[in-house]
Specification:
about 400 residues, mainly beta, Immunoglobulin-like, Glucose Permease (Domain IIA), 2 domains, ten-stranded antiparallel β-sheet, 2 helices
Length: about 400
């Protein structure tokens, strides 16, 4: 009899997940009759990249608690469906195991009316999977009291109080522009557009300091480029002197042809005070509200815009309205804006304005990829954090 009851409960759980219904395992007198949580996928139609190694999904998820209880996100499940609507794969992230599971996402406790932002934890899929649509199940436990919180840690993944299913369709990324590396010489991709990149750690969908919700991450696929020597070091001597960084003062080149639509060239470079960054004092009438420092934005004419940030004051050689071609000198790497060390920040957006446009991937042509003593000639590919590369052009 016990086995039959357990089987019936599990079947009901699967039916609830499949049909996107809210499931409740609590005393009805204490349960909310309204919605459980508002789930947003940002962007609404995420880009999905594919190469010979697999699929890559880079998007954010916001969850707004619409109950009058504190709820704890205890599990996330992903289902991938093919063009026929058949299940291709299903993945799980929960509390199962002794080491942190879903807790690696950060705060999972959501107060009434509160919104949290998390990153898609299922960021890579194998290349043999056919991806047409996706369903994400979000499972919650009530956590109003310490006793509930303690008990939740002992519950099985199939034991939950509330559930919401969110279905969406990703868009396959199709490259529009031929890009080339913007700095010559050997480079370290200090930050790429892979899952661990700090450029992804941006809480879109949440209010900023002024109470305004930022709806897009223009740096979703951004890079931080650092020049390195033959040993892979980014600087010589003390790192707390900007001139000791090999990238400081390096020429920056146009990564693709286009029209310059924005130039800022008058932001002083930062410095170091001891082991801390000493932000530059801005002259009267000069502002840098986004902390991007001296920069150039190039319109490539196809809905893609290159952005190069933290350039050296007075180094820019281009003007707004100027048409430039691949390899034209733009300026030099500096230490301006919200930077913790000299570097070139490079990103591609689908619009001309930071914090409004969404970032899009950029793949680079004709470069060398260093793997120890092995040097791989690359005709065209993505680059990720930790890659050591050098332009062949």
């Amino acid at each position: 009899m016990i086995k039959k009851v357990a089987l019936l409960c599990f079947v009901l759980f699967l039916y609830s997940f499949k049909n996107g219904k809210v499931s409740q395992r609590v005393d009805p007198s204490n349960a909310d009759t309204g919605k459980v949580a508002a789930i947003r996928i940002l962007p609404a139609r995420p880009l999905i990249e594919k190469d010979i190694y697999g699929y890559y999904l880079n998007f954010d998820i916001t969850i707004q608690n619409q109950t009058s209880h504190i709820i704890d996100l205890s599990s996330i499940e992903m289902s991938v469906l093919d063009k026929e609507g058949k299940l291709a794969t299903r993945k799980f992230l929960n509390r199962n195991g002794r080491a942190p599971g879903i807790e690696v996402l950060g705060n999972t406790l959501i107060k009434p009316g509160e919104t949290i932002s998390i990153f898609n934890p299922f960021h890579t899929l194998t290349p043999d999977i056919s991806v047409a649509s996706m369903k994400y199940g979000f499972f919650f436990d009530y956590a109003d009291t310490q006793a509930q919180k303690d008990n939740n840690k002992q519950r099985l993944p199939i034991d939950y109080d509330l559930a919401v299913v969110k279905a969406f369709n990703p868009d396959v990324y199709v490259a529009k522009t031929e890009y080339y590396l913007p700095i010559k010489g050997k480079l370290l991709v200090w930050d790429g557009h892979d899952f661990l990149s700090h450029h992804r750690r941006f809480p879109i969908g949440l209010p900023d300091k002024e109470g305004k919700a930022i709806a897009a991450n223009s740096n979703r696929y951004a890079y931080d480029f650092m020049s390195v020597d033959q040993t892979g070091s980014m600087y010589h001597g003390s790192p707390f002197k900007k001139e000791n960084w090999y990238v400081f003062g390096q020429t920056v080149y146009a990564p693709a042809q286009g029209k310059v639509i924005e130039v800022v060239n008058n932001i002083p470079d930062n410095d170091y005070s001891g082991k801390n960054v000493k932000p530059a004092a801005l002259p009267t009438g000069v502002t840098d509200p986004l902390g991007i420092g001296n920069h150039v934005i190039i319109d490539h004419g196809n809905g893609e815009f290159s952005v190069m940030l933290h350039l050296e004051k007075g180094s820019l050689r281009v003007q707004s309205g100027q048409v430039i071609k691949v390899g034209d000198p733009v300026g030099t790497v500096g230490f301006s804006g919200d930077a913790i060390y000299p570097h070139l920040h490079y990103t591609v957006m689908n619009g001309p304005k930071e914090q409004v446009a969404e970032g899009v991937p950029s793949y680079f042509n004709y470069y060398k990829l260093y793997r120890g003593t092995v040097i791989l000639p690359i005709k065209r590919s993505r680059i990720d954090s930790g890659d050591i590369i050098e332009s062949d052009k």
